[in-house]
Specification:
single chain, 127 residues, mainly alpha, 3 helical TM bundles of succinate and fumarate reductases, 4 helices, 0% strand, extended
Length: 127
């Protein structure tokens, strides 16, 4: 068998050499916003279940969701949903083989951030 010395091997070079790129950061953020949207959906389900069970349960979650903290969480969740949607659309375009040039991909990442923010503010004003 080979002499395997796992304790003294160096770390992968990517941990110390490579800097984070905009495309990789925005791609990771797509995954994070997907998890955040899933977590927020539990609050919405809680709100709906409380509405169907008892008045006291509904009053508690409704007052929580309508407080300033609830408004902030819903605002952030709205941004996360828009950002995640735009990120999945970007990945679909990449899967089709379009816009995969590095400069264009970086511009798409910036557009995702800006457009998600604009759509969130439009939604907040409209509601």
């Amino acid at each position: 068998m080979a002499d395997v010395n796992r304790g003294n091997r160096p770390l992968s070079p990517h941990l110390s050499i490579y800097r984070p790129q905009l495309t990789s950061t925005t791609s990771i953020l797509v995954r994070i916003t997907g998890i955040a949207a899933l977590a927020m959906s539990f609050f919405v389900v809680w709100w709906l279940l409380a509405a169907s069970t008892s008045e006291t349960a509904f009053t508690f979650i409704d007052s929580l969701m309508r407080s300033w903290l609830g408004d902030l969480v819903m605002f952030a969740a709205t941004w996360a949903i828009f950002y995640h949607m735009l990120g999945r659309l970007r990945h679909l375009i990449w899967d089709l083989g379009y816009l995969v040039d590095v400069k264009i991909s970086e511009k798409l990442g910036i557009c995702m951030l800006v457009l998600a923010t604009i759509l969130t503010f439009i939604t907040a004003v409209a509601v």
